[in-house]
Amino acid sequence: MSDTNDCELCSTPGGTVLWSNARLRVVRVDDRDYPGFLRVIWQAHVREMSDLDATQRAGLLDAVFATERVLIDLLHPDKVNLASLGNMTPHIHWHVIPRFRSDPHFPDPVWAARRAGTAVALPMPVADYERAVTRALAQAMPA
Fold this sequence. Notes:
alpha+beta, HIT family, subunit A, 5-stranded antiparallel β-sheet, 5 strands, globular
């Protein structure tokens, strides 16, 4: 394992924390192209999913799926992208990204070249979105 002092997700929250428990946190990522973008982050510095035991893996995926469901219910996206990429930040985390036909990269991945789409706006103020996500995850996830 790398030194946790060098790990962005150990030294910072990784976004605005909307929900957390002892094992993981869900944060809103400040991304102008994807204002509903959430990230599910394992609290401890662990590099790979296979380093977790079966119960931990199941709990993490339950959180990813609950987060996806919250985005679907609140934002009604055309698609939700789930990605566990950790090449630059070797700390388990999942990206949960609502996608809309009008977003700047659709139908390509979010890291592709921009297309003619425009930035998508949340259908509510950011503070209301954050409260709604927090409430929904508190109901869906164990403390």
